[in-house]
Every structure is written in C-alpha cells, then in structure tokens.
Design a protein that fits this description.
Blueprint lengths: L2 E5 L5 E3 L5 H9 L10 H4 L6 E6 L4 E3 L3 E3 L3 H10 L17 H20 L10 E6 L1 H11 L7 E7 L7 H7 L8 H11 L3 H4 L6 E4 L5 E3 L2 H6 L4 H16 L6 E7 L6 E5 L2 E5 L2 E3 L2 E3 L20 E4 L9 H11 L14 E3 L3 E3 L4 E6 L8 E6 L5 E3 L4 E3 L2 E6 L5 E8 L6 E8 L3
Parallel strand pairs: 6-7, 7-10, 10-15, 17-24
Antiparallel strand pairs: 1-2, 1-3, 4-5, 8-9, 11-12, 13-14, 16-18, 18-22, 19-20, 19-23, 21-22, 23-24
Protein name: Pimeloyl-ACP methyl ester carboxylesterase
GO molecular function, one term: O-acyltransferase activity
Pfam families: LCAT
Length: 431
C-alpha cells in the first residue's frame, strides 16, 4: 500500500490522499474503497483501469495493518548521497495486483533507467542498479532479479520489512478474527483484501498453523479458502513463494529487519476464524521472535543472509533515520578495482576435506584482505557457519578452516559489484 493509486479515466486519487480525514470515512462507510476492488477483467490481465502514479507523499492508514509512512524523506536521503539526482528513480506499482505483474513493469523501468544513466554525462557505461524496497516491494524486486533474470544488472538490493516467508497478519485479515476493537473497519478491509492478488501474495509460507493436538504445519490454499480467501490466488502465491525459495541466493541482498514489536507469528484455525499468536514453533516448544509488528523476525530475511536489525514498526521503518543512513551507506560503498566494483576473483578450495581437519581456501585477484568477504555455508540448510579470516601471504589471499561434520559445504568469496564466487567442498571421514 505504499504507492499512490489514481483512476486512469478521471485522474481521481483513490489511495494516498492528502486529506487524512478521508481514511476515517473510507474504513467506516466502505463506499470510497469500492473502486479498489480487483475485477475479474483485471485478474485476467486487462489492467489499466487504475494506475500507480508515485510513491506515498502522505501517511496512509488501514485497520490491523496500521499506518504507512510516506517515502519523501527516504527519497530525499537517497538523492543526497547519489552521484546526481538523475541517478535516482522512484518506482510506484499497483499493489493490488500480483508480484509477477509488478515485477514485469519493474524490469522495463529498470532497463530504461539504466540505459538513461549509462548515457548521462555523470554516468558510466558499466553502471549497475541499487534497488531500495520496502515491504512487498522487496518481493517484486526479488522476482525481477531471480525469475526474470535481472540480477546481473543489480549491484545491491536493500529490503526493509520484506515478508520473504509471508506474514501471519495476512491470514488474519481474511478471517473474522477475535477481539477486534473496530469491527466495521476490519470488515471493510477484509472485503477488499479477499479480491486482491497482491494481498494473497503475502500469505505465510512457513510452519505457522498450530494444530489442536500440538505441533505446527504449513499454511495451505485450503486454509486460505476456509478463511474466506480465494483458493486460486492463495495457491498461486504459495507456489510463487516456493519458486523464489528455490531460486539462487542473492549475494547483493542487504535486508533491514524490524524487531522488538509485538508481532503475530502463528495462528490456530477454528470455524473460519484465525486466532493469531505471538510465538512460533521452536523444536517441541514455542518462542516469541518479535519483528516489526507485521513481519516476524525470521520471515524478513532469507535463511543464511546476514540482516541489519532495527527496533522499528513495519510502516515506519523506511522513514527512520537509521534506515535512511543505512541506505546511504550502501549506495556510497567504495567500489573495488574498476569503477563499478568489478573485481575478478578466483576461488580455489579442495573438492574434499576430512572432517575436523584444517584445509586452505585461496583467493586470487585481490590485493588486501579487507577487499574480500569469505563465507562458509552448509549447502543443505544454506546457513552460514563461519567467515574465515583471510590473510595475505605469498602473493595471494588465503584462510584456513575446518568442516564441522560430514556433508556438503559451500565456500563463497565476494568483492565489489560481481556476484560471490562459489565452490562446493565435500566433508569426508577423517582417516
């Protein structure tokens, strides 16, 4: 809900209105929201009735989801740190529609912007993109980079509060829920939400349903239907989540994760209602992993990716001074080697290594240890195990490390704008 939406035929603003009193009327009468319902024609691909004009310039509000702060300060901060104001382009999209639809539009916008900047007097022929995305925008960017193949043109992807594994809050919107202090606004939101492919894209894709007899299981399209959601849209969403989870790891990803807020993390289903809980499965028990109030902590960053944590709410995280400073720091990271950070690394590791015994990692193409980040992952879980410390010896960088147990591991070396160089190594029994 971070983009202003306009009725194409009349130019009337439908979402992101400057008069904030409008939200009080809209969520209690419902008439003002009727135009935002997704029609059968739009689901079939006949879009254009509504267009996204720009990012939010004023606060917006939805019950349960609370408020959405505007992006004006983030945009201003990025423009201050960019090489030139022309290097920055905002991308608004119709958040009612599917991620695939918006990602295709992003691909076109990214291509146009990159071509223009490479031809700009202050630009570079080898320039790459830095994507800054809040919430669902991170899923759009992820789809663009992986499924649509845009990763090669992207230097960094900064996500803020992006629900990579969905949000239990979304399932709560579809069901009637319990203990809601404002039942009428919530009913208005539920009527809107049930028609939106975009909202179904945010359904939880992890073990979040607590069974009556104990234990947790994954959320399914049938569960969404039992809550009043659209089974077809829910299945498309869950299939897309699985597709993105199977996609290649993005070394460019820099997730900013909100923490410390009371956040729904699991739910129980009873007679078409969803009762939300502020805990998640932890082995045979439960654990409260508070996130930003909408996305719980582990859902906001893919497994194995190091996140930047910030105690902030979902709607306000992109407006916070820390997030703006973090974005500026990533944008202005000094490239290594050629102007766009294209350092050609060579990675050499043995194909096998005995469990518990030292083996050597060698990196060619960099002249100092601080220029390269070396990481060791469990190839099955994709969890980071260690960051071996590189030292400069005999004209090359090297590090020594051990593999903790039998299995397959991945060594990565990353510098500058290129993707990490990866090599698998098999841990074998020690003689």
């Amino acid at each position: 809900m971070g983009s202003e939406l306009v009725e194409t035929a009349t130019g009337r603003v439908l979402w992101g209105i400057s008069d904030l009193r409008w939200y009080g009327t809209a969520w209690t009468t419902g008439g003002a929201l009727a135009t935002l319902l997704v029609t059968d024609e739009e689901r079939e691909g006949h879009t254009g009735r509504i267009r996204a004009s720009r990012l939010l310039r004023f606060p917006a509000f939805a019950p349960v989801l609370r408020g959405f702060e505007p992006y004006t300060e983030l945009l201003a901060g990025v423009r201050r740190t960019a090489a030139h104001p022309d290097a920055v382009r905002e991308f608004a999209y119709d958040w009612r529609l599917s991620i695939a639809h918006s990602a295709a539009r992003l691909a076109k916008a990214a291509e146009d912007h990159l071509r223009a900047w490479r031809a700009h007097p202050q630009g570079s022929r080898d320039a790459q993109l830095t994507l800054v995305a809040h919430s669902m925008g991170g899923l759009v960017a992820h789809y663009f980079m992986t499924v649509l193949g845009g990763a090669g043109d992207v230097r960094s992807l900064i996500t803020m509060g992006t629900p990579f594994y969905g949000s239990v809050q979304t399932a709560g919107l579809l069901g009637s829920g319990r203990g809601t202090p404002l039942p009428l606004p919530r009913r208005r939101l539920r009527a809107l939400a049930r028609t939106l492919p975009g909202l179904h894209e945010l359904l939880p894709g992890y073990r979040c349903i607590e069974e009556p007899g104990g234990g947790f299981r994954r959320f399914t399209a049938s569960d969404a239907e039992s809550l009043g959601g659209d089974r077809e849209l829910a299945q498309q969403s869950l299939d897309r989540q699985e597709q993105l989870r199977r996609a290649d790891t993005l070394p460019q990803l820099r997730p900013l994760v909100g923490i410390g807020q009371r956040t729904p993390q699991s739910l129980t289903l009873m007679g078409g209602t969803a009762e939300l809980h502020e805990y998640v499965a932890d082995g045979d028990g439960r654990l409260d992993r508070r996130g930003d109030g909408t996305v719980y902590r582990e859902a906001a960053a893919p497994a194995g990716i190091q996140a930047f944590y910030l105690p902030q709410t979902h709607g306000a995280v992109a407006r916070s001074e820390e997030a703006i400073a973090y974005t500026g720091a990533v944008v202005t990271e000094r490239p290594l080697g050629p102007p766009l950070g294209a350092t050609e690394l060579g990675l050499h590791v043995p194909d096998t290594a005995p469990v518990g015994e030292l083996f050597t990692i060698e990196v060619d193409g960099a002249c100092k240890p601080t220029a390269v980040v070396c990481r060791l992952f469990d190839a099955v879980t994709n969890l980071e195990i260690e960051r071996p410390r590189l030292t400069f010896q005999d004209g090359r960088l090297s590090a020594e490390t051990r593999l903790p147990g039998l299995g397959l591991y991945r060594v990565e070396a990353k510098a500058g704008g290129f993707s990490a160089v990866r090599q698998l190594v098999l841990a074998v029994p020690s003689e």
